[in-house]
Amino acid sequence: MSIGRNEVDTVAHLARIAVEDQAAEALVKDLNGILGLVDQLNAAQTEGVEPLSHPLDMVQRLRVDEVRESNQRAAFQAIAPEVEAGLYLVPRVVE
Amino acid sequence: MHDLTLRELSAKLAAGTTSSVELTQHFLDRIAAEDAKINSFVSVTAESALTAAQAADSVRAAGKAGPLTGIPLAHKDIFCTQGVRTACGSKMLDTFVAPYNAHVVDRLAAAGMVMLGKTNMDEFAMGSSNETSFYGAVANPWDLTKVPGGSSGGSAAAVAARLAPAATGTDTGGSIRQPAALCGITGLKPTYGRISRWGMIAFASSLDQAGPMTQTAEDAALMLNAMAGFDERDSTSVQRDVPDYTAELNNDLNGLRVGIPKSWFGAGLDDGVATQVRMALAELEKQGAKLVEIDLPNADLAVPTYYVLAPAEASSNLSRFDGVRYGHRCDAPHDLTDLYKRSRAEGFGSEVKRRILVGTYVLSAGYYDAYYLKALKTRRLIAEDFAKAFAEVDVIAGPTAPTTAFGIGEKSDDPVTMYLSDIYTIAVNLAGLPGMSIPCGESAGMPVGLQLIGNLFDESRLLNVAHRYQQATDWHRRIPAAYA
After folding, report:
1. What is the residue extent of each domain of chain B?
2. What is the pTM (predicted TM-score) of this model?
3. Are B341 and A61 a contacting pair at CB < 8 A?
4. Are A44 and B334 a contacting pair at CB < 8 A?
5. Superfamily of domain B6-232+241-251+471-483
6. Is B76 an active-site residue?
7. Among B22, B138, B403, B409, which one has the highest count of C-beta atoms within 10 angstroms of its own C-beta?
């Protein structure tokens, strides 16, 4: 399956990555190269095969629902680009 | 002193013929003198290293030293280190100072090892040549015009040039084994879940696994003893006892059944590599092992399966880099979407963007079944091939990589060609199995790696086979002439 500029723009929007015009052509070519590689999977017979999402076929371990972490807001916000009064700042979303 | 293994350094420390401070200073001096040309380190933590070395010497003086106490090492810059920048090879994290230590970092520090610094790597561990790093390519100490492999290229190059006696690495599709092969060192990727992923920056979480990169199998066993074990902070950490991985190193190989995948010796394998690998197999045979041809009928599906699943998982994992909580943020965003889009466009390099976009595409509405679900099914076919093989054999052996180290820039324009560097290593991650690469010869002056693959949790047997091979050969003791 090959994709064009429009599809790349749609996917890039979903991934929240800006794609500049001058980079788009090379990107379309590279992505089609990769999709060409993965298209080899089409030839595989997978009728009746169960998907394997975890190599050990493990089930998710559960823990007791209790508070364990201490509050480290100051430490975590010390590395944030912009914070004020314990809040992360971003451009205004609601006018 | 830099040509000594962890075991030998441990003996010298125990005998009192050197101290951790002296050893640490020795390696810091070597890094300062030699690394400008190799670029294997992105941070050198000289001051904290010497403080840790003094502490290790005090522990030894108090009679409380373990086998690794006071020995220096380097950490791949994918492991979070509290108070030290953890950039993961990316502009996105160029200013990121981790607020906590990775489990692996804590465990090795608790064992008394001294961190010299952080090693260069492909950006977010996505690459097979260490050329995608924001901090520049790493040179292979055997030939500075060649790549060291990737993504743990800095760790492999640092150990190969003996700028550190050992290092940590991570392996999602071959990122410990392939650079170990290309740089002539020993690298072990344990069974998925054997070592906690806590504090290890995530690429593809169902495949990522940390491991040791060392000169010898014995050293890898010593480090694995310290690194392995259950950690409740990693939801896929396995609750299973950790054996002493040094206990079976010397078992003889009489009657060992070694599976040889026929298809791995076909087209695509460099002749020089094939010759060296066959000689290594002959050495195992000489020690009493039986070579058995095996068939892995779905082996050809491994690379395409991986390039659906790993990007899919990466696209989800890397969505956390949003320019809001930490990491790179663009200047003057005009709204929130612009902030996300430009921060990510500026912070990620081109290979990371390609993989995020491929991953987003294969998970998007209308394509999920055709790509993602299909790849989960082929993943099971690949894992079942190995399970069938391990009913007949004890280990599987073959080449680690199809060629020796290639030139810097040689494959960087074509992602798909680059991906094929991991053609023999990727299936092992998909199946969750432990795998190793050990030096087994040279072709045109460049190191060749022998790959050994074990059944789930059979690291002891892999280390045993590798150790016995290293007792009979000296490829693992060879050092590039400029760094001897």
Report:
1. 6-232+241-251+471-483
2. 0.97
3. no
4. no
5. Amidase signature (AS) domain (3.90.1300.10)
6. yes
7. B138
